[in-house]
Predict the 3D structure of the following.
Amino acid sequence: MRKTALLCLTLLTATPGLASPAEGTFGYRQGVLSYSKCLLGQRDDTLPDKAYIALLEHADEALDRSLYSVVDKTQLPASGNRHDYFSFAPYWWPNPETDNGLPYVQRDGEYNMATKTNATDKQRMISFAKDVRQLALAYYFSDNIDYANKAARQMINWFVTPATRMAPNMAYAQAIPGRVDGRDIGIIDSRLLIDVANSVELLRDTPALSQDEYTSIKGWYADLLDWLLESGNGREEEQADNNHGTWYDAQVVAFALFTDQPELARKQLNITQQRIAEQFDAQGRQPRELERTRPWHYSNFNLEAYARLVDYAHRLGLPQWQDANVERELRRGFNFVAEHVLQDEPWPYQELDGFEPGTALGTMMAAALLFNDPVITQAAAQLAKQQPGAVEQLLYSPFPALPRVTGCILPTAR
């Protein structure tokens, strides 16, 4: 917390309505970050100061952490290459019927925390992506270059430096001991790199990241995108009819936009559009997600990917995504979750770890920006009120529930 008080004082005296470089990025909602930053400049207890203070506290902690690298794992993937990302499938456990525990057996929804040790890269990638995101956002809202410098060093170490960079593939993700060295399903791990790309854009044209470094990182993403499109694992993941297929699409579209390939993004969004009717029923339920042992989590998880894809499609001006039937099908999906956030009746599906409506915060706030729907907006506002310190308060601020403040330019819907 050593910088929090000083930075809050600096921000609260900032010029309202200051233009933001983030408005041109593909990852964050256009205008919302600059509006949130402007709101923070107002002396009003109803504005998102708690989220800002929490963000700076997390970013201050991230300043002190060592640089992350896939080469630091203590166990190697089947390739023997320390630069290859390597993780174990989280819902697979040692076999109780064999002496050596092999082959592992599945227990859906039961997270094997042994898969997140320093032996592999799963937790390392989670921590890397989280720290970079918080540092980049803290820089954006505070203008403190220390945050940008640390975020940039983390990115360069992960993507660029020859001795520490990750090889641009996910071939050995979610291996299962005794069964397979890596799986198409493991591509879900690299969804975290979408927000890292967003963070790269926030640091673009700052002293923290040179043009050569920026270009090198984009080149890495272009290579990963090629692997996603051309590898057997990538082609199999694209065929998945649940959240795995949706998140594959979200990665391909995001990485295509980040690497200046809009036509590729449009092509993948056309594929995504065909998934919608298959994944949602007439009530907005997602049968493939509801059959899991954690149906609330997976319903929201899939919708999180769709919220990103809808936003990308709108930015690209794809007319088929604004078709009344397509929008109606998607809104039903988000409405199904929103109604269960708001209603007092119990969630009708069995949950392995219990029903936690608050975990829908990000999904609902993102959807409130995308759809002019009073039920979704009400659910987003209710959850936001319950979690004033969540970073989503700064990223989404549910439209049209945003406060009107003189001197700040209110972002438009969509």
In short: The CA atoms of residues 267 and 293 lie 33 Å apart.
